[in-house]
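pinned: reference chain
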Amino acid sequence: MEGVVIKGLQVFGDSRGWLAEVFRADETEYVPAMSYLSLTRPGVARGPHEHREQTDYFCFTGSFRLYLWDNRQGSPTYGQKIVFDTEGRPCVAVVPPGVVHAYKNVGVADALVINLPDRLFKGTGKASPVDEIRHEDDLSSPFGLD
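pinned: its structure tokens
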């Protein structure tokens, strides 16, 4: 899908656990504006929604199913749908504006997601409207979130 990047992360493990580099400025031109960490319980889905201006830079740790739908009229991949399973491996997904996205914890344990979006939530001082178009009740949405 045009503009979407999904990549596995190299994991460095030893007897203490593991480490994976989530973001490196020397590997992308992407510039995050903030970051947050969220926990998603087993069987729970977040989304679907899209942003008008914001790009999301997600790092998934745990077993997630990622749903993407290109809602950008004029995009060469307009209308394309992708469903991607992380299969418990840490990975990054970069989701540009206009791509509807959702994810679901398909594992049996709580799982973490880090996001490094390129816009501040609600703008400077949290004084602006949220840049989000929700699709939970959109009957034309291709997501069943199964």
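why pinned: The domain at 5-134 is CATH 2.60.120.10 (Jelly Rolls). The two ends are 21 Å apart (CA to CA).
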